[in-house]
């Protein structure tokens, strides 16, 4: 079960409705958005909660507009606690400027920051212990959080993002696919949502999960399902 909590903390940062037909709506701004989720056992009992927050700094004469994105995870089972804090600074087009990850998984601690130079096509990853790694990046490189919001923006415009590399410390290749619209249960109600499957591959990991997006203007992620072994755990929007 400790393995589940470790796996949930990362993919959830990648986590988080598709306008396949009809004219694209105005792109959502994602300013002052606050979303809260329950992290659940397969039985429905809660393991903890996660919060997703987005704000937008308007451009000035001296500085461009900047997005500030946050994702917090607090989950626990007896004897093992997960506390994760993720922070992303990105351009208005979701190109990353900085990504910071502070994680505590039981006794294991992680504190690292990745700084992006979009003009040079590079990123520098530094850990609190003094380690440093320089990476080559594609045009408009995205960290896991900025990618999540990029996906939501693309879906609101009736588009599916192509396969690409994202950065969650190390680089990962991610591909998402639209697999249809379903009616799902949210608390005591039924809602219509579009289902996307995601495949994430790194040098030492291969993770697949599914995300359901509401058909609202912001394409709110309403439910994430992550299979771990024979069981499927979930992250469900709290209303």
Task: Give an overview in words.
With 239 residues, this protein is mostly beta strands. It has one domain (2-237). It contains two helices and 15 strands. It has helices at 2-14, 144-156, and strands spanning 33-40, 46-57, 66-77, 80-91, 96-105, 108-117, 122-127, 132-136, 142-143, 164-168, 170-186, 189-201, 206-214, 221-228, 231-237. Strands 8-7-6-5-4-3-2-1-15-14-13-12-11-10-9 form a 15-stranded mixed beta sheet, with helices on one face. The longest helix has 13 residues, at 2-14. The chain starts with a helix and ends with a strand.
Fill in the keyword field for this structure.
single chain; 239 residues; mainly beta; 2 helices; globular
Question: What's the quick description here?
Answer:
The protein is mostly beta strands and 239 residues long.
**Strand arrangement across the biggest beta sheet:** 8-7-6-5-4-3-2-1-15-14-13-12-11-10-9
> What is the terminal-to-terminal distance?
27 Å
Helix content: 10-25%
Rg (CA only): 17 Å
**Judging from the principal axes of the Cα atoms, what is the shape?**
globular
> Structural class, please?
mainly beta
Largest sheet: 15 strands, mixed
The average pLDDT is 88
Secondary-structure element pattern, one letter each:
HEEEEEEEEEHEEEEEE
**Poorly predicted tracts of residues:** 13-23
The structural domain count equals: 1
DSSP E strands, number: 15
Give the strand content. Answer: over 45%
Number of helices: 2
